[in-house]
Amino acid sequence: MSTLPLDLILYISDIGNLSIKDIFHLSQANKLFREKLSHPYFWHMVYNQKIGKIYELYGISEPIPESNYYRLCKEHLRRFNEIERELNDFNESKNYKIRDYITKYSLDLVFLPTLLYFLRQEDFQIKLNIRNKSNTVEFSKGVFLANLVAGQSFNIGIKMLTKFSEEPLNSRSYESFWFAFSLLQKKSFKLIKARNLFLEGAAETLRKLTTEYYPLPLVDNKYTFKTVDEYSNKVALYTQLLYQSYCDIRCEESNYMESTNLLSMYSGRHKGDQLLVASSLIKVVDEELEALDIRITSGEDKPKLLLAPMGTALIGDYCVPFLAGHPRVLKKEKFLNVCRSISEPLANRALLPITKDEIQAMICYYGTALKFLDGLDVLSPPCHPSTYGDDTFTFFGQFILPCLFRKEVSNFNMQILLQNVRDFLVNANHIYYPIFSRLPILSGYSLLIEDAPQYLPCNYSPSLLQGKIVITNRSDAPAIVVGTCNDSSFYQVLNAYGELERLRDTSFTVVDRVKAEEVETFVELVGLANLIYVRIKGVSLREGEEPRFIIE
């Protein structure tokens, strides 16, 4: 292997999923390797592979402080070894003090690539062990890492939303908002790669339109238009054709939460609200055309590409409505006449660029699409379980986000915001306390959860029902019996939506003949990060016995 070209070694390290530690070991294997792998190009590529690529997936464009990529990789190795030691010395007490570890590892971006690497390893091993029906499948390390990555993702999303609130709107802001909002989901790491794949696919479609089917005008080897109107018409045409190419992923009626979850839409397993689809495609058009350095010979400035309500694209005197049916390029005046024939208030807003408040107001509470399924159907959903959303974040979007980044908030609204934040931070969301406590608007206010228990207060003493999968009468959903409520005959159960229910044993039915794949689906639906609060540390799949979740 020491005779292989550098690029081939890099390729092997990528497809072989070698860790940064493996690569450093490889670079010290012998004298020939030390000489070959000391080249600055090699460490530049390793940085891009193991660190830069992760930042790119999360939309992070942090400036690299220096060009010494070997040194940057060495620092990454140090953090890798630190997390590895935490896992090697792991015990359950770390999960019971998870907020301390969120503070330590989730508030600094430099730990993200390492945490994500170990989480993916653990997540894969858990699934493999369930599929192989191992006697006991341990979740604890995966649960620990899933919470740290959830903290990282939430922190990144909050920072992006802060930036969105502070900067003027442009054609790329819309997509950035929806992407940031989707990062607040604890399972977003499972879908994070979908964003670049979708946007690159749309960009490739646009490049074919601009070079093969409807080529841009070339004058002296430069893309040149005579007038603003000619340019606007052409951009509107490209937008229309791109809209048309993605009509099939548009949800005609946004009646469930996943339609406003951008990563879920990007994954291809759920359709998205028309405004989400339009936001993504507008971003692609703007970025691709900007990269071409297009000129207008009349000397006029190129008009900006903007977005109006219902996904209508605006450019110059043209618009491209993205309503039901096929998109069309229309003159703005003609579109306004159509709107006036329907409703004057509609016409008044039809061509005004959408505002930040209007974007935020779109986050409506419909609940996750899972709630449209019945009983055991939830464990064999038509979509991959990782694409289903956590509907606690619609509460965040509706009742916290509108006030969170305002420079001035009245005392009355401040008290409402504080109460909403406290309500959001109950149960499994308590892990986000270190993030909220550092937000400027909440500085100096007590959130009253500093000493709150980091797991569900209930009686965890073993019982015949503890750890069993049941179907609840109220939500008609699979659930795990966690324990009994203190000083009562009620049981605490965690359902597949991630909700806690307090029920009598007459309010649920034990499920028999549970399959290993149904156990895997349940864990995927709830998410590893949500298991920590109810002290679920694994599952027993002993042959001849019904699966039973292990609760400490």
From TrEMBL:
CDD domains given in the database record: F-box_SF
Domain of life: Eukaryota
Protein name according to UniProt: F-box domain-containing protein
Record lineage: Eukaryota, Fungi, Dikarya, Ascomycota, Saccharomycotina
